[in-house]
C-alpha cells in the first residue's frame, strides 16, 4: 500500500500548474511498477519546504494512523520536494515512521546502511543549500528593485499591484480604499481630524475599509500605520535593508508636505479620546481659521441658560484674544 505526497512552494506555481501533477504521475507509474496500491494523494500547495507544520502532511500522518499496523509507502518525487532543511528532513521522516509510513522515491533509495544514510544526508544538504541560495538571490533582486524606488512587499491598503511592460509589478490606486485613506490623511494633516481617535472613527464609518474580524473595529495600530507610511506620499523606506527614504515609482495619495505635517502632528501629542462633536453638524471644522491668531477653529455644541443647544466655531489657542 502507498500514498503519494507532493508539494510546490509558491502560489504562482500552483496557478501555473507546475510540478504537482507531473510528480504525482511519476509516483503513480513507480507504484504500478512496484505493485503498490495507491490509497490516497496528498498535495501541499504554496508551502515552503522549511516548514514543519504543513496542513497536508499532518492530514497524511493522520490518515496513516488510521491504517492500523499496516506499513504504507510514502512516495515523493524528489527529496527537495519533501524538505529543504536537513534537520527538518529527519524530523518529518521520524514522524512518518511513528505512524507506519516508509519514505520511498523513484529517484533514490532510502536505506538503513551507513552508505544509504550518507547519501540521504548529502541530498538533504543539497536541497537545503538550493533553498537558501534561491532565498538569497530573491532577496538581492528585491533589494535592487527597492533601491530603484519599487515597493516589493505586500501592497499597502489603498494600492494594488499591476504589471507594467518593462517595469514589472507596480503599485496603483485601489478604489474605493485609496480615496478613503486619502481623505483620512488629508483631514489629519489639515487639522480637520485633530486626533488619531477621529481618524479611527472615520475609517470605521467607511464600510469598504477592512475591520478587525473579532471586534469589527479599526485598531489604533492600523491607524498609526496608515499615518506613518511614506507610501502614501509616493515614497518608500526599508530600514532593515538600509534603504533610506526615497522617491517611489508609484503615485502618492497625498503630498510629501502633507505627510511631513502628519508626522509633526503625531509628535506634538499623544492619542486622546475621541470627541463627540465630529459629525455632519460641523462640516467646516478644521478648515476655517481664527480671525485673530490664524489658528484652525474647533467646534462644539453649547447649552444656553434657557436649555437650548447652539452650535459654535471657536478658538481655544492659548494666548489668543
Strand content: 15-25%
The percent range for helix content is 25-40%
Low-pLDDT stretches: none
Q: What is the residue-averaged pLDDT?
A: 86
What's the total helix number? 10
Q: Major β-sheet, in short?
A: 4 strands, parallel
| Rg estimate, integer Å | 30 Å
What sort of overall outline do the alpha carbons produce when their principal axes are compared?
Answer: elongated
N-to-C SSE string, H for helix and E for strand: EHHEHEHHEHEEHHHEEHEE
- Helix and strand content put the structural class at alpha/beta
| Number of beta-strand segments | 10
Give the strand order, joined by hyphens, for the main sheet. Answer: 2-1-3-4
Gap from first CA to last CA:
90 Å
